[in-house]
């Protein structure tokens, strides 16, 4: 669904409501946590979140989609005994969700933004959410340190929580961060290798993207009162969503509209990124795949014309169709795990709506 578009189906309305409500519930906690950091770091974090301009003046930039905190909050509800959320435009409250669960959602969002700050430095991305990235404005060292600080305050948020599930949530989140780092390291290592297999790329996507979405769902379930088996099924649900999310993200990185994404057209191709559609094309054994390999053999960022040729080659080699099909398969697998975690279909609807939104997004 495009930013600013009016949701038309019940699922779209549910997802839009959940994201908006998660932003409303979690942002005050995020602001309080950021304000507790040393001023030299809090001002950079406030810029990254879109609350301030570089000079410290107020801003209203895009603070992100809030998918992860929305998953935490939605995953808690089925186990609390709360009445299922209204699926229409009248839904205005996350009633039944304790403040501690909202703090857990904020902790997950803080970890997510720690990874974004570091990813932008590693990938040398200059634009995020339609404006310059933090490292580009404040410097590489400063952006890395602020990311480190966000990671620490995320764990502190859980460590100071008295909820019975807080310790298990912190354990899951710490394991998740290690997995995230492993996925990021693999992603970077792939750029230095001539050949990468599709299986390796899918494993990397699960670690780099799926792990945190799975963790968000599991933490929400634990805070709602789920048992370990239910939390594990919820984790598996989130992981499958995460891989679908990465597949869609990789498609957007090649064919996304810059006016919607806030990034240059073909941004992943310009740096010869071995994204999932690209690797599928390279492994296709087709003439188009060979053409793409020739372009990717250039040891430098591609020109705009070369990136367009590469995009055409990925498409002709079947990489685009494969990624779209694989995303659908992951969504089907996610739904199977969700039926185990939440057998009641009505209670599962908000989570299903968020999952469907991931599969249909364009930024």
What does this structure look like?
The protein is an all-alpha fold. Helix content is 70%, strand content 1%. The protein contains 16 helices and 2 strands. A two-stranded antiparallel sheet has the order 1-2. A hairpin with a 2-residue loop joins strand 1 (127-128) and strand 2. Helix 1 crosses helix 3, helix 2 crosses helix 6 (140-159) and helix 8 packs across helix 9. It is globular. Mean pLDDT is 91; it is low at 86-92.
Question: Order of helices and strands, N to C?
Answer: HHHHEEHHHHHHHHHHHH
Estimated share of beta-strand residues: under 5%
Structural category is mainly alpha
Sum up the overall morphology in one term: globular
Helical percentage: 55-70%
Strands, total number: 2
- Cα distance, first to last residue? 9 Å
Main beta sheet, described?
Answer: 2 strands, antiparallel
Mean pLDDT across the residues is: 91
The number of distinct helices, counting runs of at least 4 residues, comes to 16
Q: Widest sheet: strand order?
A: 1-2
The rounded Rg comes to 20 Å
Q: Which blocks of ≥5 consecutive residues have pLDDT under 50? A: 86-92
At a glance:
This protein has 363 residues and is mainly α. It has 16 helices and 2 strands. It has a two-stranded antiparallel ribbon with strand order 1-2.
Blueprint of the fold:
Layout: H1 10-35, H2 39-49, H3 67-76, H4 99-123, E1 127-128, E2 131-132, H5 134-138, H6 140-159, H7 166-190, H8 198-224, H9 228-255, H10 258-261, H11 267-270, H12 276-282, H13 287-296, H14 304-316, H15 319-341, H16 345-360
Antiparallel strand pairs: 1-2
Helix pairs in contact: 1-3, 1-4, 1-16, 2-6, 3-4, 3-8, 3-16, 4-6, 4-7, 4-8, 7-8, 8-9, 9-15, 9-16, 12-14, 12-15, 13-14, 15-16
């Amino acid at each position: 669904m495009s930013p600013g578009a009016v949701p038309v189906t019940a699922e779209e309305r549910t997802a839009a409501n959940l994201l908006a409500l998660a932003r409303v519930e979690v942002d005050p906690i995020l602001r309080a946590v950021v304000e507790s950091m040393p001023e030299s770091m809090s001002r950079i974090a406030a810029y990254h979140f879109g609350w301030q301009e570089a000079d410290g003046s107020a801003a209203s930039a895009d603070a992100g989609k809030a998918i992860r905190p929305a998953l935490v909050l939605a995953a808690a509800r089925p186990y609390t005994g709360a009445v299922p959320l209204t699926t229409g435009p009248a839904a205005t409250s996350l009633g039944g969700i304790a403040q501690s669960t909202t703090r857990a959602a904020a902790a997950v969002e803080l970890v997510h933004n720690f990874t974004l700050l570091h990813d932008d430095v590693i990938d040398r991305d200059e634009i995020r959410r339609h404006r310059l990235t933090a490292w580009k404005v404040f410097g590489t060292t400063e952006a890395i340190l602020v990311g480190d600080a966000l990671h620490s305050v995320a764990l502190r948020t859980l460590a100071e929580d008295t909820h019975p599930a807080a310790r298990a949530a912190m354990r899951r989140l710490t394991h998740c961060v290690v997995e995230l780092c492993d996925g990021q390291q693999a992603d970077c290592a792939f750029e230095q290798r001539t050949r990468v297999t599709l299986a390796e790329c899918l494993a990397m996507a699960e670690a780099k993207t799926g792990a945190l979405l799975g963790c968000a769902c599991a933490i929400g379930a634990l805070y709602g009162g789920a048992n370990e088996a239910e939390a594990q099924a919820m984790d598996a649900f989130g992981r499958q969503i995460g891989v679908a999310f990465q597949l869609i993200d990789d498609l957007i990185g090649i064919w996304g509209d810059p006016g919607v994404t806030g990034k240059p057209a073909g941004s992943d191709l310009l740096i010869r990124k071995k994204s999932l559609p690209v690797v599928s094309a390279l492994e296709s054994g087709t003439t188009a795949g060979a053409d793409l390999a020739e372009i990717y053999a250039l040891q430098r960022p591609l020109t705009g014309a070369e990136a367009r040729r590469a995009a055409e080659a990925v498409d002709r080699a079947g990489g685009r169709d494969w990624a779209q099909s694989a995303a659908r398969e992951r969504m089907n697998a996610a739904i199977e795990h969700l039926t185990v975690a939440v057998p009641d279909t009505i209670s599962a609807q908000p989570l299903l709506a968020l999952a469907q939104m991931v599969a249909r997004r364009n930024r």
